[in-house]
Fold these 2 entries.
Entry 1:
Amino acid sequence: MQEMYRIAVLPGDGIGVEIVPEAVKALKAIAEKFGHEFVFTEALVGGAAYDAVGHPLPDETLELCQNSDAVLLGAIGGPKWDDLPVHLRPEVGALLPLRKELGLFANLRPCMLFPGLIHASTLKEEVIEGVDILVVRELTGGLYFGEKTREKTADGGQKATDVLSYSTYEIERVVRFAYEAARKRRKKLCSVDKANVLESSRLWRETVTELAKEYPDVETVHMYVDNCAMQLIRNPKQFDVIVTENMFGDILTDEASMLTGSIGMLPSASIGGEVGLYEPAHGSAPDIAGQKKANPLATILSAAMMLRYSFHLEEEARTIENAVRQVLIEGYRTPDLMEPGKILVNTVEMGDKVAEKI
Ligand code: NAI
Ligand code: MG
């Protein structure tokens, strides 16, 4: 077994700099317990990198990621950089190219309710109890990567376009991945599209229908994205694996995060290339940044996914997940999950509790 793993650490902006150290803390506790060597190298990305060197994704940062075994990312962006030209905006200038350069076409977002959080959600107990959904979001194509234009029109206004395009190849590789995941779970795949309106979605649906023949053991359902948004709240337990387009997946997973109690509980793994990237599903939360209020558990759970998917250290991954479970059962809560009778902790205290449990 490999003993040394190189991890690129990119805290980024806003709460990114608060939550990433807590995930590193958990990884260090794992290294100590299991006798691994994790080598952490920190680099600038996003607005922080723009401020320091004039570009949100410096070459050195990309090279560090390419030469690491895995990347741990916090969050990128914030109001300070919103008015930059689009190619320099942290999200478009750093996050998207980072995912593209590393070839990370599949973004896994497991959405499950931890015991103890049944009353943290705004949704009814009987609706969310037992929810366990894996959303596979296509990550390097679709609307976010299509051509963007902006031009002046004769009437003195402007015209802007974003193009949504997919090839059979791009659809096939992510859907195949989702089928393989469904095979290891409850064998149900829901493919989400907007095939009643969009041509790219028609190709998506045709491609899934073809692939379904190779997976007769998996039940395939097609659903329109607007219906899916409703079904996730009406009856989320109908879903096992959901596979969908980049932007649809982005939006549906913010929605699905409320099934888990908070967006601060939703981790993610981006895979498909040689180096995996692990980040919480949420953003830089400028409204609470710098106040030690951020929930670090989504990032800590993303570190667990790193151990599972990049390093194949399943027992170590489960050790982190069990530590999170224990800390929640004992009643520790960051403000986003707080309810009467529980123990309020800040970002650092939550990270300490998880590391102690490990
Ligand atoms: P957001 O996810 O940052 O925040 C939405 C709401 O959820 C806020 O009220 C925030 O306080 C709360 N929240 C998020 N994470 C939390 C946590 N760990 N603990 C407790 N509460 C949490 O989304 P928003 O406000 O739309 O975007 C803020 C910035 O982040 C923007 O610049 C956006 O572009 C960027 N962004 C970056 C992402 C990334 O780096 N992957 C993903 C999404 C947004
Ligand atoms: Mg998002």
Entry 2:
Amino acid sequence: MTGNLAKAAKVVHCSARRSRVFFIKCVWQYCVNGKECAEKMELALNRFSMPAIRAIFAPMQILDGTAVAAHIKAQIKEEAAAMKASGGKTPHLAAVLVGNDPASEAYVGSKVRTCEELGFGSTLIRLEASITEGELLEVVKKLNADPEVNGILVQLPLPKHISDDIIINNIDPKKDVDGFHPISQGKMLLGQPGFLPATPYGILLMLEHYNIDTTGKHCVVIGRSNIVGTPMTVLMSRNSNPGNATVTICHSKTTNLKEMVLSADIIIAAIGRPRFVTADMVKEGAIVIDVGINRIDDPTRKSGSRLVGDVDFDNVAPKCSYITPVPKGVGPMTICGLMKNTLLAAKQA
Ligand code: NDP
């Protein structure tokens, strides 16, 4: 034990302050709590890495998107009210919904309700799925020209006969609160201030809220979409915290996916496949961010279905230091990212 403690002291000396504080608490517990804790301590020292020690001593923590979002929304609401009181603008979001896909209806509905909750203005424009690309472009151009509108979001996916890229490229970059326009993405890549894509932004806000140190960690992002996976890799590797991680991006052509994911300190799953990440792919003490939203059949539910993520939550959670649930994890944080961008757009208008 003494030898192990000496080794531990050496590692702890090189670790981040929070890890050191945590380790000292563990030693203290060991001293006062006796045998059970001594056994845990022995196990921890044998495994000998901070995440492993944390996993043994500290229970897994759920990253509660609903609670964090409530906290952030209260701040946004206060800031918007102060802006209005000092003669500034009331942030106004225009949401465009094409067709009547139930999931898109639900997402847009919740964004509009959040605007009301925060004292923002909002406009919901519903369009038939049969609308042409040209007609939709006209709607976007009108919103670009409307001085009352600070933020525009066109809910994706659009019907197949309309190009997402053409529509997004025609949104005024000053109103691109979803952060999908090439100018927003380019600024993000270059580390310049601008609108961050709403979901990755929400994930950063969550990591920040829980004070999770990502510096030097190996972060594996599964999925390379323009709206989640790819921007996530850029943000996790940038020179700030959250960030400063060593990032690996995986996709459907990755041949050694399991090996990659097993080596991750942080896993960000944005795949769109129910419970794809299983316990045998996750190392002990990992931080798991589940972006996926998948509807699966569930005859025990009145609705006959329920939402699950891209991670097999029940079996993966016991191995993690932190994990987001689905629902009530990343989803509410995406809305926070969108609302923070809308507030920023109004400030800059
Ligand atoms: P996309 O379909 O655009 O991208 C999915 C990515 O996953 C692709 O890069 C694809 O690889 C990769 N992938 C698919 N199958 C595999 C596989 N077997 N192994 C490894 N990689 C694979 O999805 P999005 O990024 O738009 O969304 C991902 C998930 O996140 C969805 O469930 C979506 O509903 C959810 N989502 C949730 C949000 C929230 O607020 N919580 C917001 C946005 C999305 P390849 O490129 O090679 O095809």
